[in-house]
Amino acid sequence: xxxxxxxxxxxxxxxxxxxxVSPAGMKLTDDSSIMTxxxxxxxxxxxxxxxxxxxxxxSLCKGSCGITVKKVAGRAIKIEGQDDHxxxxxxxxxxxxxxxxxLYDPSRIKSPLQKIGDRFEKISWDDAVSHIAEKLTxxxxxxxxxxxxxxxxxxxxxVSELFKRFLKVFGSNNFYSxxxxxTTWETTASKMHGKSNTLSxxxxxxxxxxxxxxxxxxxxxxxxxxxxxNAARKKKNVNLYQIEPRLSNTAAGADKWIPIxxxxxADLALGLCNIIINEEIYDITSISKSxxxxxxxxxxxxxxxxxxxxxxxxxxxxxxxxxIAHKFAWADKPIAIAGKGRGDTAGDTKEFAAxxxxxxxxxxxxxxxGTWVSRKNNYLKFPLAKxxxxxxxxxxxxxxxxxxxxxxxxxxxSDSDIQALFVLNSNPCYTMRDSDKVIKAFENIPFKVSxxxxxxxxxxKADIILPTHMFLERYEDIPSPSAxxxxxTVGLSRPLVKPIFDTNNAGDAILMIAKALKGNVAENFPWSxxxxxxxxxxxxxxxxxxxxxxxxLTDKPSYLKPSTDFFHVTNNLKSVEAQGDKKSFPxxxxxxxxxxxxxxxxxxxxxxxxxxSDKVIKxxxxLVELNPETAAKAxxxxxxxxxxxxxxxxxxxxxxxxxxxMPGLIGMAQGLGRTLDNKYVADKGVNINKLIAPxxxxxxxxxxxxxxxxxxxxx
Amino acid sequence: MSEKEKSTELxxxxxxxxxxxxxxxxxxxxxxAFVVVFLSGWLLFPKLLYSKKEQxxxxxxxxxxxxxxxxDTCHFLREDGSYNGIPDLASCMECxxxxxxxxxxxxxxFCEEYIAKEKEVPWFIYSKQPDCVxxxxxxxxxxxxxxxxxxxxxxxxxxxESKPYEENRITGYGRDIWGKSIWGIKKxxxxxxxMDDCAECHKEETGSQGACFQCHK
Lengths: 715, 217
Known about the structure:
The complex is a heterodimer.
Chain A: H1 5-21, H2 24-37, E1 51-57, E2 66-72, E3 75-81, H3 94-97, H4 99-103, E4 113-116, E5 119-122, H5 125-141, E6 148-152, H6 158-170, E7 175-177, H7 181-193, E8 197-201, E9 208-214, H8 223-235, E10 239-243, H9 249-253, E11 256-258, H10 265-278, H11 292-304, H12 307-314, H13 318-330, E12 334-341, H14 349-362, E13 371-375, H15 389-395, H16 403-412, E14 420-424, H17 428-431, H18 435-444, E15 447-451, E16 464-465, E17 476-479, E18 488-493, H19 506-517, H20 519-523, H21 530-537, H22 542-548, E19 550-554, H23 567-570, E20 587-592, H24 606-610, E21 617-618, E22 621-626, H25 628-633, E23 641-646, E24 649-657, E25 665-669, E26 707-714
Parallel strand pairs in A: 6-7, 6-14, 9-10, 9-12, 10-11, 14-15, 15-16, 20-25, 22-24
Antiparallel strand pairs in A: 1-2, 2-3, 4-5, 4-16, 8-13, 17-18, 18-19, 20-26, 21-22, 22-25, 23-24, 23-26
Helix pairs in contact in A: 5-19, 6-15, 6-19, 7-14, 10-12, 10-13, 10-14, 16-18
Chain B: H1 3-49, E1 50-53, H2 61-68, H3 89-92, H4 105-115, H5 137-141, H6 149-153, E2 165-168, H7 175-178, H8 195-206, H9 212-215
Antiparallel strand pairs in B: 1-2
């Protein structure tokens, strides 16, 4: 016998036949198909388990929407709007829906940090707190307790109150909060209707809305509430007239878009008042002709704001101005609102007063669908603060009119009055105008403590960072924004997930510092932890707050009809103008609030930033809007690289030629150019606040800039 | 002999000598290879394909069903209709505490290693299906044609010992899906849990094996 080629062939065929009839072949085919479905575990599959829903409040913006967090086996997997919540009624915005991304954000601060040289080093909570206590004790020993200050993102809520209380019993009156349109509305309400008042707008029940640039669907007021109101408005055929220099989403969805020269909104409002008074179509039941302030006001508008003059100043057709005045005055329940874009910054006092004068003429004060004048809600009951003599002395020292004026002063010299600064829920080094100056001012303050969840522009400048829980990890009372919504509510933010990092509630952090200081300061903070404190200061409402997750404090206008003082509008108020020499800077740079880009202290989530149009950001480039006419003059075409220069800075941008912006303007998105350690959202575009100089109004001390003179050239 | 005859003769001889022995050896080799490969595919292959893993500790179903009465005390449907599957530590702790209730060695492991340390037991799940399949226990347990656990899961409720978990090295799923028989032969409804088995029952019960998207959503 000889083994030859045929034998091998037999062997091979035998093996093939054996494999074919054995079960291995079909089993391997089946297994490979299943294996490829799960291809090396590349397909992420969430863990299985019980699905539960917990309610809380979103505090990514001031909207205070109720949220329902869906969890699987205790792990939060989705955020939805809370169905029965009085503010958002089940709705939610794209930032809220992506809230979980902030939980795992790469720029979150993972433990307390101390700056040594130029670098941050990890320290324990105990060491960080005792280090702060040492510094503060030294300041108090020098009898200068007033030299500590605090800047907070909001003025209301128990955490801000705890910081305010801490400063007070330490001996400083330097607690400030970041200004927004709410601040200007409060000023307007106090000046026109008496002290301690605030204004809110019952837009959902109005029959005609006259908006002076308010980004009604771009995040103004309580955003989701406004989206819902806007959708309902269209069904009810309630007209919205949008007055602004650019075709925003709100303008595009309005019944009429009225382009106006930026900065002349107050003139238009006063011109409308002129027509309404002149034609005697104001509400005679609520305005008495014998009111001396009304007489002075009438005289002033009759003289300075004739429709012809206003048509010239604002660039709006005379007939159209008359039409708006008639439409407003003849409407059943008209309302006029102001606060440009989202209203994230303080507004022009004159503009707000002039717009509110329209509401007063329409007689809509404290009526359904009108403007509600009410006292600020105070649902918090803190025990009386006890101060020692050093504290009393320090607290009585004069304070700055606003944080802007403080920064302005501190930036000027390294020998500043402010020795220590606490930064809470805010990011002034990013959000304040002329941010380079703000950063310089920060460098002049010897000791800064940041209570931040993220390593943002301001946290980077701190000497000590006490990292705080993000909103899904903490207890906190969240009051609704004052102007945007008439239903005054307070929601309860609850810890829905275990803290991921070595963080704490800011309330607990300040309690720890107070206890470390001992003595009188510690005695004013008797609570063992923040939750106990929250329970005790909200004692009257705690049971329903913790049960339902929110409490509606008021949802009806006051039955009182407050008197109206028109002197505030009549007194030589000046409109805020764009700063800069018109010869070297022939154009005007205005900021654009885009609902997809968060403009405040918190940056957009990776999810939200991905939804922004490539006409706003392309790769890492920011595109600015130019009217075709402006672009042609500057010899720029769509997509060209260009350089914007303003009196305070310059930036490289790309051009988006857009017919929807008035000639002579450059429109730039707010909220970009972040420098967080989060590659998905950072280093995209430019921070517009670096290019705009603040315009501090003498009365309020607030920065009411809305733009700046600028030039653009091809590069 | 003419040239033609000679060549015919040669051919015949060639056939006789080389052809016979070559074919015989070829057939032999064929048979040997066939048998070796066939038997390996049948007997050796499953041993290589599946890895054997022991459960963290033995679980006695009989003992528990005697105490609790039925399967659904531990394997229940939640209020929202979702199925809890193997109970988590919290569910076990509704009865068990850190101190063992009985005197089995396995309970001692459970109490010391898991309850005391608040650690979930990493059970291997025999009947875990691929993630591309949507399956609702509620739909099969509620309603007029409700099924028994046994129809799909067999006699596991009557087991005193936890059998070793055999994991398919290629797919990562348990052996119970394909079934113990590598041939895919089934004698009972619970012997296999493949798509065809679902379809077979659906066809019988509803008249249609159903559309793809009903399970593959």
